[in-house]
Each structure stands twice: as C-alpha cells, then as structure tokens.
Specification:
83 residues; 0% strand; elongated
C-alpha cells in the first residue's frame, strides 16, 4: 500500500526535481505522507476484519484508532497556539 501511494505521489516529486534540492525534499515528504496514509488505512481495514471475526476485540481496536486520530488532531491544533 505504501508503494502504491508513493507511485501516486511520484509526479509531485518529479515536478519538484527541476530544482534538485527541492525535488529530494518533496520526495521525502511524499514518502512520509505515503507511509502515514498506508498505515492508517491498513489499520482501519484490519480493524473492520477483526469486527467480523471477533467483534469485541475489533470494536476495541477501532475505538483505539479513532481515539488516536482525535488525539493527534488535538495536538496538531494546539501546537501553533504554543508557538
């Protein structure tokens, strides 16, 4: 899944490679975004499968992922206020 997202975002890196330094920074950024997206989507798909097999464990894992999402969102919103 990570490689798929990297392939989708590759044109951004190629566009930025007109200036070599910018291209490598954009490539690193798109790689990081790809890993985060793939990890999140993989966890959600795995949690949905767990709900089908073991509902109690699957729901607990899904609530954990949703809670982590809201925690990260809250931390991201609070960070500019501290600066």
């Amino acid at each position: 899944m990570t490689f798929g997202f990297m392939a989708i975002m590759r044109p951004l890196s190629v566009q930025g490679s007109v200036i070599p330094f910018i291209g490598s920074i954009i490539g690193m950024g798109t790689g990081l975004v790809s890993v985060v997206l793939a990890g999140t989507i993989s966890l959600v798909v795995t949690d949905i499968a767990w709900i089908a097999v073991r509902p109690a464990l699957g729901i607990a894992l899904l609530l954990l992922v949703v809670g982590e999402f809201f925690l990260m969102r809250k931390m991201a919103a609070a960070k500019p206020a501290q600066a």
